[in-house]
Amino acid sequence: MTTTENPINYPFEGAGPDDYVALVPSSVRDGLADDEPLVRVRLAYGGEAWVARRYEDVKVVLADLRFSRSAAIGKDVPRSDPWIREDHSILDMDPPDHTRLRKLVLKAFTTRRVEMLRPRAQQIVDTLLDEMIAKGAPGDLMEGLSWPLPMTVNCEMLGVPYEDRAKLREWTDASVALTALTPEEARAGLQSLYDYMSALLEKRRDDPRDDLLTAMMQAREDNDRLDHDEIVQLAVMLLITGHESTSYQFGNVIYNLLTHPDELAKLRANPDLVNNAVEELLRFTPLASSDGFIRIAKEDIELGNTTIRAGEGVFVDLDAANRDPRRFDDPLEMRIDRESARHISFGHGVHHCLGAQLARMEFQVELSTLIRRFPDLSLAVDPKDLPWRHGRLVRGLNELPVTWSEVCE
């Protein structure tokens, strides 16, 4: 029974090495998805909040505009980090401000633009795998493929010079640190990204090119346009989510596939299942160690047989929602031929991830190419010996050693 007494520490306790290796959210492991659909939690800063965990409850919190992101800005709300968010990015806005920005961004970040990148993504993947093959087995799939592909695609899409990618990777990694770095170091990484992108945007004003920065600069809607700071914030967001989320999640996905040999065999026998497999793997594989965006109830709201009072904060547990037995049959089982994954890994409602189509395309290209070119790909070490990263918002592997004996063109 949900109660305001004895709140649980959040992010949930017990998220130690075993949880990371298994890639099972500790809250799901502990049975909270069934027994505590709405959980009262205590955060390191700002006090207590609620965590919605059932699939339908999470969708309500994500879509119901009475749960406000904007109301958290500039206030001492429950959070995992010590600083109070002061800047409004598109991630922190409510309609109509959010609607205005999203319309303008979508004019530049179109499905057509993403699909035009598919042949280039395929070329990059083939080149990266050629380099891994030339070096010989075993190889590190994180260094060889998972990190460079999304960074290369995102930088080329935005118009970032090739030689700057190493420092951008360093800054994006720092920007999502929770306990791995000091708050000052994490903020310094984020500020470096803002400074870099601001300077690059100024160059594009004098030298427009066929890239996303220029497209965002030129996007208009009824005489409205994005200003300098808005474009910079959007570009930084795309770099961080594209590099951190996509890179590490692909490593997580491949880890899960290689440690579920029956599902891997299905995919090898039927490569046409790749797109379906991507959706199921995204449903099954947790990514963030916690949801960093709190929403504030603008009025009293009934949710999960509990009254959320006006002014109280609510987080959503996407991983628990994706494993909710009310929505999915055998949710703790990974089945790449599941008829309808219908996950909410990319969110729901007005804040549904802008880069979802790009991430899907990259996952599809990477997975289909790996299956085709490495028919006997396997882990090169015991799963328990894999090095997992800690203290950051995004879960993932520092290395993913793999081996193979057969290679196809």
Care to describe what's here?
- This protein is α+β, with helices and mostly antiparallel strands.
- The protein has a single domain, classed as Cytochrome p450 (Orthogonal Bundle), CATH 1.10.630.10.
- The protein is built from 17 helices and 13 strands.
- The strands form 4 sheets. A 6-stranded mixed sheet has the order 1-2-3-11-8-4, covered by helices on one side.
- Helix 11 packs across helix 13.
- The longest helix has 31 residues, at 228-258.
Average pLDDT value? 88
CATH superfamily: Cytochrome P450
Query: How many β-strands, per DSSP?
Result: 13
CATH level-1 class: Mainly Alpha
Instruction: Provide the gyration radius in Å.
Output: 21 Å
Shape designation: globular
CATH topology: Cytochrome p450
Order of helices and strands: EHHHEEHEHHHEHHHHHEEHHHEEEEHHEE
Share in helix: 40-55%
Which secondary structure elements does this structure contain, and how are they paired or packed?
Layout: E1 8-9, H1 17-22, H2 26-29, H3 32-35, E2 38-42, E3 48-52, H4 55-63, E4 67-68, H5 97-108, H6 111-116, H7 118-135, E5 139-140, H8 141-146, H9 148-158, H10 165-175, H11 183-206, H12 212-218, E6 220-221, E7 224-225, H13 228-258, H14 261-269, H15 274-284, E8 295-297, E9 301-303, E10 306-308, E11 313-316, H16 318-321, H17 356-373, E12 378-379, E13 401-403
Parallel strand pairs: 1-2, 3-11
Antiparallel strand pairs: 2-3, 4-8, 5-13, 6-7, 8-11, 9-10, 12-13
